[in-house]
Write a structure and sequence with these properties.
The complex is a heterodimer of chains A (114) and B (112).
Chain A lengths: L3 E2 L4 E5 L4 E7 L6 E7 L6 E7 L4 E4 L2 E6 L4 E6 L8 E8 L9 E2 L3 E6 L1
Parallel strand pairs in A: 2-11
Antiparallel strand pairs in A: 1-3, 3-8, 4-5, 4-9, 6-7, 7-8, 9-10, 9-11
Chain B lengths: L3 E4 L2 E4 L5 E7 L5 E8 L3 E8 L6 E2 L6 E3 L9 E3 L8 E8 L6 E3 L3 E5 L1
Parallel strand pairs in B: 2-11
Antiparallel strand pairs in B: 1-3, 3-8, 4-5, 4-9, 5-6, 7-8, 9-10, 9-11
The chains are: A mainly beta (114), B mainly beta (112).
Chain lengths: 114, 112
C-alpha cells in the first residue's frame, strides 16, 4: 500500500517556464512534508518542507503548496533552469511516531530543456 | 567537510556472500537510517536507529541487519546476499524534528 504517490514518472519543461511536480498521500496522520532533489550518482538533498499547519512555503524559486483536504501537495519551480533537471522525491512524516521516519514517493524525473 | 560517508561506493558481490555496508557521520546526529532505492519503487526504509544502542525495522528489513554501537557509525549487514538485494543503498541521518535527512552518496550493490 503506497502511502505517498507521485503519479508522474517524468516531466519535461522549457527553461524559464514553471515546473509543477505533484504528490498525493493517503495517510491522514502525516503532518510534515518534504521535497528532495536527486542527481545521478549522488544522494538525495533536502529542498524544501512544509508543516501541515501551513498551506504554502516559499524559498527562492521553489514553493510548496499543501492542500490537506485533498491530501495533495505540489512543488512549483519558477523559473525552471537546466540545473534543476533531477529526480524529485516527495516525502511525508508523522511527528507522533517514535522514529520520525520519512515515507517517500517513487520520484519524478524533471528535465528542463534549454 | 561535515556529512555522511558511505563505503564502498560500489560493489559486485556473489550470491550467498556476507557483506557490510559502512556508514559514518560526523554531525553528531542522533537518528540514522538505511534506505534502498530501486527503479520504479523510490526509496524504501530498511532499518533505522533513533539513538546509539537502539535500532528498529523499516518497510523492507528482511535479509538485513544493523547495529548502532556509537553515534557516528551505522553499518548495514547482508548475512547471505541474494540477487534481489541488488540496489543502491543510502544511509541518512537527521538533525532535528523540523529538518530533513542528510543523505550519503550511496553504495551501488550488485549481487550476481
Amino acid at each position: 500500500d503506497q502511502q505517498v504517490k507521485q503519479n508522474s514518472p517524468s516531466l519535461s519543461v522549457q527553461e524559464g517556464r514553471i515546473s509543477i511536480l505533484n504528490c498525493d498521500y493517503t495517510n491522514s496522520m502525516f503532518d510534515y512534508f518534504l521535497w528532495y532533489k536527486k542527481y545521478p550518482a549522488e544522494g538525495p538533498t533536502f529542498l524544501i518542507s512544509i508543516s501541515s499547519i501551513k498551506d504554502k512555503n516559499e524559498d527562492g524559486r521553489f514553493t510548496v503548496f499543501l492542500n490537506k483536504s485533498a491530501k495533495h501537495l505540489s512543488l512549483h519551480i519558477v523559473p525552471s533552469q537546466p540545473g534543476d533537471s533531477a529526480v524529485y522525491f516527495c516525502a511525508a512524516r508523522w511527528s507522533g511516531g517514535s522514529n520520525y521516519k520519512l515515507t517517500f514517493g517513487k520520484g519524478t524525473l524533471l528535465t528542463v530543456n534549454p | 567537510i561535515a556529512g555522511i560517508t558511505q563505503a564502498p561506493t560500489s560493489q559486485i558481490l556473489a550470491a550467498g556472500r556476507r557483506m557490510t555496508l559502512r556508514c559514518t557521520q560526523d554531525m553528531r546526529h542522533n537518528a540514522m537510517y538505511w534506505y534502498r532505492q530501486d527503479l520504479g519503487l523510490g526509496l524504501r526504509l530498511i532499518h533505522y536507529s533513533n539513538t546509539a544502542g537502539t535500532t528498529g525495522k523499516g518497510e523492507v528489513p528482511d535479509g538485513y541487519s544493523v547495529s548502532r554501537a556509537n553515534t557516528d557509525d551505522f553499518p548495514l549487514t547482508l548475512a547471505s546476499a541474494v540477487p534481489s538485494q541488488t540496489s543502491v543503498y543510502f544511509c541518512a541521518s537527521r538533525q532535528g524534528l523540523d529538518y530533513g535527512y542528510t543523505f550519503g552518496s550511496g553504495t551501488r550493490l550488485t549481487v550476481v
